[in-house]
Amino acid sequence: MLINNNDAFESTLSLQRLSLDPNHFFNNFKFIIANTPDEKERAFLLRHQVFNEELHYNIGDQTSPTLEKDSHDQHSILCLLQHRESGIDAGCLRVVVIEESIKGVAQILPLEEYCSNSLISSNFHPEKMAKNTICEVSRLAVHPSFRKKKKPLFDSKNLHSENIDLKNRSQNQSIISLSLFLGATALVGLTKRRHVFAMLEPRFNRLLKASGLHFQQVGETINYCGKRAAYYIDQKVAVENLPEKLIPLYIQIEKELAILTSSQLNSRID
């Protein structure tokens, strides 16, 4: 899972310091499933801005100078998190699934393509699991204006919502990042693909554990856009073990995404 890691997660995702009221959150943000060409382009644009312009990862198929995308986007669910008042896409993520029914589409997850030699767990290996039960969460990014203290892309003076204080970007970053991971968890459940893989920095995995998401390392640490390793989590177990404080927000996120994805996910599952 590629995430923008410079100043994005310097502070832990401390549940005690965050306002996790679902109404509070959804008054200020909304999830969007990127189905239209315009929505997909918005996700690719944010990814390019974060991963290629900011972090200089130079990932993607390099077919566009302003969009970061690859072949796995053809069999992925792309998700945006939009800040309502500004209209800015505050974050994005994708859930890569295997579409065995579609010819010409890769039948492997991205980490199998790029990091297969690093996978060391025989029990938790994508090859050992049914294709329609696995997925990979990746390309999670947060817009710089919700992280950086310098050069915001929109004027925070024009944002009057008492729930969004752009002067406190550390808290904004944490709630946005946490909501994206909860959104990914919900999407995985809705697709009925409980076996979840991700490429994570070990440091970031520790922060996820502090928020109640316990990934298990199943690959060696390698140099892949920084020090990363393959991790695994069972979505059903993850939901069962969510901290009590997170459950109301997770339930509401799941409800919102279920409405947005009902027709799309039914066609994938059938």
Structure keywords:
single chain; 270 residues; alpha+beta; Aminopeptidase; 33% helix; 18% strand
Describe the structure.
The protein is of the alpha+beta class. It has a single domain, classed as Gcn5-related N-acetyltransferase (GNAT) (Aminopeptidase, 3-Layer(aba) Sandwich), CATH 3.40.630.30. It is 33% helix and 18% strand. The protein contains seven helices and eight strands, in the order H-E-H-E-E-H-E-H-E-H-E-E-E-H-H. Helix 4 packs across helix 7. The two termini are 27 Å apart. About 9% of the residues have low confidence. Pfam families: Acetyltransf_5. InterPro entries: Acyl_CoA_acyltransferase, PEP-CTERM/exosrtase_acylTfrase. This is PEP-CTERM/exosortase system-associated acyltransferase. It comes from Halomonas campaniensis.
Can you name the CATH architecture?
3-Layer(aba) Sandwich
CATH C-level class: Alpha Beta
**What Rg do the Cα atoms give?**
17 Å
Count the beta strands: 8
CATH homologous superfamily heading: Gcn5-related N-acetyltransferase (GNAT)
How many H/I helical runs? 7
Which helices and strands appear, and what pairs or packs with what?
Blueprint: H1 22-26, E1 29-33, H2 37-54, E2 76-83, E3 89-97, H3 110-115, E4 134-142, H4 169-190, E5 195-200, H5 202-210, E6 216-217, E7 222-223, E8 227-234, H6 235-240, H7 247-269
Parallel strand pairs: 4-5
Antiparallel strand pairs: 1-2, 2-3, 3-4, 5-8, 6-8, 7-8
Helix pairs in contact: 4-7
Protein name: PEP-CTERM/exosortase system-associated acyltransferase
Organism: Halomonas campaniensis
InterPro entries: Acyl_CoA_acyltransferase, PEP-CTERM/exosrtase_acylTfrase
